[in-house]
């Protein structure tokens, strides 16, 4: 039984290492693509992402992040069932051990998935304009390139696409490695997208978005949740429907808590 558990741990560590390496390579490749007026930047980036050719950049990045999220979740589950070390004076390394580079790669991937994936799904003015977004110094991707690709990806996407983006982002951001730092940083964006999906895109029914919003309300401290919600409401929005739908939602939240 012990041998089987060790084999499972080894497989989990290998899977985690492989998925993290692929995401690192993808983000490094995107960073390496230079802005050039004579080059199709979007096509150039897609060339360095060797996944499904017909998928968008954000969909390919989300596929890589999903694989990493599953690998981390598997490693964490095995970690919780490990026997205590025989020699307590020699602590063993955790199964899910990420470097600072890994952490900054995930942060960059989340930013790109949001900007290149979620922004086309909502009306202009719902989310912070891309040039005004505050990103970490470790992001190291040219703002002009981010804006250029976002403009190319600006065709309206379906509610189902937004649902998928929110699913993937919430999955990775609620993992223990990223929840303390990254989830608060992106909570206002996620809340704006969820409220927009629920109240401004009623078809198909936003069942999944409503469940995800309720889950955030259940697991996050009310101070953190309300702080991010105030940030959403304080941002000038072009969509009257979004503003009007946010008011009863906020009043309901205050009444509940």
TrEMBL record:
It holds the Pfam family TANGO6_N. One of its GO terms (biological process) is protein secretion. Residues 59-196 form the TANGO6 N-terminal domain. It comes from the Eukaryota. InterPro entries: TANGO6/Rtp1 (IPR039600), TANGO6_N (IPR057347). This is TANGO6 N-terminal domain-containing protein. It comes from Aphanomyces astaci.
